[in-house]
Amino acid sequence: MSHFTTIGSVILNNLTSDINMNYFKYDIVFQEVPNEISLALYFTGCPLQCHGCHSPELWNKNNGKDLSTKVLKDLIQKYRGSISCLLCMGGEWEPIFLLNILKIAKNEKLKTALYTGRELIELPTEIINHLDYLKTGPWIEELGGLNSNNTNQKFFKFSEHIKEDKYVFKTHTRSDQLKSRLC
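and the corresponding structure tokens:
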């Protein structure tokens, strides 16, 4: 029996079908998510194509290799004990795919993170509910990244869920600066 969740006009299937989308590469990273060692997956097909993007190879959805459920679970198993987080570099443009990946990571007892050029308000609540960390905002070269005082980008650490889909989170907009906010 399948269980479905509606997010806006998108219906998400709760982990009943195989996932598939291309990833360009994966890496073990130490700085992208504070205090976590992350398995980072770089997904292709990014529709934002920000000017000055450091990864234009991620724009073409045909680049890379297919990420199946088996491939994902094999990668998690390969690095089990060494990683604490699964970091998705993009993928939100395929919400069913992304939600399935996040659920697999959670089932494997990993924290989850998403780097996206979209804003928080543009992301489905169902996806946010499965994240521990989130970096939002398009790359705007003249504003710089998270370490810039002028950046438009934000880094969230979701620390507690509150009823009615509200969250308490911390925003990292600069190195070692945390601002608690309720939204």
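(Above: one complete record from the training split.) Confidence is low (pLDDT under 50) at residues 1-16, 161-183.
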